[in-house]
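pipeline: protein-struct stage 2 | run 1193 | Integrase
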Amino acid sequence: MLFTLRNVLAHGTALIQPTVKMTDDMKDVYPYSWQSKLHGVGMYLERHFNRGGMFENLADPDLPEHFIDVTKKYFEQLTPKFTPLPERAQKTVDMIRGYSFGFVNNTR
């Protein structure tokens, strides 16, 4: 869900919070798939931040750290399946693992 949100924000897709769900007979209408994806994002954010709405949850100051923590866990699970990684990929994974907010991390 977080990567769907990242794609929406990174590519400048409109982020809407509809009040009425589109019906199943509208599956061929472009916004239907985005609405269903963003509904999942909204539920995920509400489950983790409980602020009462998508935009309120997006404004939570803990969201960026949550996103990077989930990303780090993803790479922890993914890396062993592709070991050894190409050097460039390994450097990227190492940088992600060492990333922290607001302070220097000297634990490498």
